[in-house]
Design a protein that fits this description.
The chain is of the alpha/beta class. The protein has one domain: 3-Layer(aba) Sandwich (Uracil-DNA Glycosylase, subunit E), CATH 3.40.470.10. Helices cover 38% and strands 19% of the residues. The chain has eight helices and seven strands; from the N terminus they run E-E-H-H-H-H-E-E-E-H-E-H-H-E-H. It has helices at 31-36, 47-55, 59-64, 68-77, 106-114, 125-134, 139-145, 161-168, and strands at 2-5, 22-26, 80-84, 86-91, 100-104, 119-123, 147-149. The strands form two sheets. It has a four-stranded parallel beta sheet with strand order 3-2-6-7, with helices on both faces. It has a three-stranded antiparallel beta sheet with strand order 1-4-5, with helices on one face. Helix 2 (47-55) packs across helix 8. It is globular, with a radius of gyration of 15 Å. The chain starts with a strand and ends with a helix.
Length: 170
Amino acid sequence: MKHVINNLARIDFESGFCNAKYIIVGTMPGEKSRTDCFYYLDHRNSFWKIMSNVLGVDFLSMIQKAEYKKAYQVLLDNGIVLSDVLSECDMDGAKDNTITSPVRNEKLCKIIEHNKNAKLCFNGKKAYKLFCILFKEYADRMKEEAIILTSSSNANPCKDKDLIWKEKMA
């Protein structure tokens, strides 16, 4: 078990304060994402493949070329903001099921408050469960509006992730 800090939660993505349609919320970035300071960079995670299929944009080539700002701008142009539930925690590798001592990401509150009409989409059940525990002030909103997406993690064996995301984000 290792203590990890979400350095992405500390990056000032002022762009997160746009008029988002969707806020996609993960739990905690993996090691590669924390190292390179951008979301979903582990090549085994299907997030960028899913978003390529959902939006019809070749995110995979942008990520391979390390064009992270460009990829994020395309998400923003499509009304999508990324964030995480946690700013820090103890965990084993990138395994969400090992998370202990979670600390909520205060920046997420600011993003939610600035995008009151955005739908909160959780990248997996663990992100949703942690959000419900750590962000109780949004509990009423969650009962009616939460969209729980199939986790894009390689630990999730679901083969139709992109179809499920596309349907739920329609």
